[in-house]
Design brief:
Two copies of one chain form a homodimer. Chain A is mainly alpha-helical. Chain A is about 60% helix and about 10% strand. Strand 1 (about 60-65) of chain A pairs antiparallel with strand 1 (about 5) of chain B. Chain A binds a DNA duplex through helix 4.
Chain lengths: ~150, ~150
DNA sequence: TCTTTATAGTTACATGTGAAACCAATTGCA
DNA sequence: TGCAATTGGTTTCACATGTAACTATAAAGA
């Protein structure tokens, strides 16, 4: 039997966090649940990690990005991006060329094979998102969007 | 210069995700930003990892939990909990006893040293949460709570 | 009882990850 | 120009993490 802490040692107030109402904790659980759910759809099937998929998703949206730009857009660490790209290029899903004017920079694009995977995975990801949003009323969906906007800018 | 993809190869519709409006992506960024912010407050100062802090937080809230129960309450993997506990016991922040009736089970509690850390870190965590919520109006805060409730139950 | 099955927890292995060091190309500026 | 500082990107190292295998105890069923 588990007893939620009600009394504290004499004279001392501990005030433990109530995790189930603690915003950072709740967000973390929710976010992990959703992202992992999406990853389950493609991970084994395409031997594609979550970071690799994220890279592919931004390359689908923006052509010819550099690795640095991919890192910015995905909010991923540049090392993680470098490694994901190494695998994606190796497996023929992304092409990498040298930038004409700046030889340090790479120019990245999805290949045909990359697009083929994208065109299967993107709809699945969208479906997962829709399934989550379905739990909310129209009104709640609007508020959620607004709230995320507010929380996101610093 | 980066050109957002507008046209697709002739005859093919790719429909890339717009990450900046994609809920799972936005949640992930937000959640990581907030949790990392809190972790920055205690990580170096107490040589305490995020998983260790989470374990401490539930042990502050509920006395005498088993490792299994800690895992359930924190939504962490049991291996992660086992490792966090090993460090916490080692560093004298958590005490571990054997359950009277079931010798497999451990009975976990914060020690004095554990409570001392808790009593510093918990208020900092709360302050971080408050700083996040401050960005929202009263009304938005209420909606957010409601929305998280809805999204969380399966 | 005896045997099977389930549960609590740890260990081992393989992989993922971030920080810092590193190399190469570019830019800023004296 | 030429040299220092910056930037794009990769590699190295140390550590975190998840999966599966494993040990020990308990519960269930014949």
């Amino acid at each position: 039997m588990v007893t939620p802490r009600k009394r504290t040692p004499p004279g001392i107030q501990h005030a433990p966090l109530e995790l189930e109402h603690f915003l950072p904790y709740r967000l973390s659980i929710l976010s992990n649940t959703i992202s992992q759910g999406i990853a389950d759809d493609y991970q084994q099937r395409y031997d594609l990690s979550m970071t690799e998929w994220r890279v592919m998703a931004v390359l689908a949206r923006f052509e010819g990005l550099s690795a640095r730009e991919v890192a910015d857009r995905t909010a991923m660490d540049k090392v993680a991006v470098s490694r994901a790209l190494a695998r994606l290029v190796e497996s023929g899903r992304v092409s990498r060329h040298m930038h004409d004017d700046d030889k340090r920079r790479s120019v990245l694009d999805l290949t045909e094979a990359g697009w083929a995977i994208h065109d299967v995975v993107a709809p699945m990801a969208r479906a997962r998102e829709a399934a989550v949003l379905e739990k909310l009323s129209e009104e709640e969906q609007v508020w959620l969007g607004r709230i995320l906007d507010r929380l996101q800018d610093r």
